[in-house]
Amino acid sequence: MLKISNAVVLADWEIQLSQVRAQGAGGQNVNKVATAVHLRFDINRSTLPPFYKERLLSLSDQRISKDGVVIIKAQQHRTLEQNRQDALERLRELIQEAARPVKKRRATRPTRGARKRRMDSKKQRGRLKQLRGKPSKDQ
Q1: What is the pLDDT of residues 39-85, one digit of tens each?
Q2: Please, are residues 56 and 72 in contact by the beta-carbon 8 Å criterion?
Q3: Residue 61, φ and ψ in degrees, nearest 5
Q4: Domain layout of the chain by residue ranges
Q5: What's the predicted TM-score (pTM) here?
Q6: Nearest-5° angle of CA 105, CA 58, CA 100?
Q7: If we measure between CA atoms, which residue out of 61, 71, 64 comes closest to residue 17?
Q8: 78 near 69, Cβ under 8 Å?
Q9: Which fold has domain 2-99?
Q10: Is 139 exposed, middle or buried (0-12, 13-18, 19+ CB in 10 A)?
């Protein structure tokens, strides 16, 4: 079982864990031992509350496929158990991040001083660029 919050818990049948060979360098052992973990979690079939499902499916995260399946590959650690724990922790963080409320943006206006400073710097920049031009013919 994976505890997301006090009210939300995922059962073991909802999360598919499979072991695969890790990629990259690592010596002879990396070619023989399957220590990396593929985690698959189907959002639509899960027992998550509808609020969590909607928020997860609306995320633009590369780990979530178009079908609503979360795929996480953990291969950072040397042992299978550490990679399994890492994958589950990353799934928990993804779901908790989706549940976090989005902070509303309050429209603000630049102060009069900030607008004046901006215009002054633009004028100064324009004068500098004007001096870079070719000399006139009457000189």
Answers
A1: 999 988 888 888 888 888 888 888 888 888 999 998 888 888 999 99
A2: no
A3: -110, 135
A4: 2-99
A5: 0.68
A6: 55
A7: 71
A8: no
A9: Double Stranded RNA Binding Domain (3.30.160)
A10: exposed
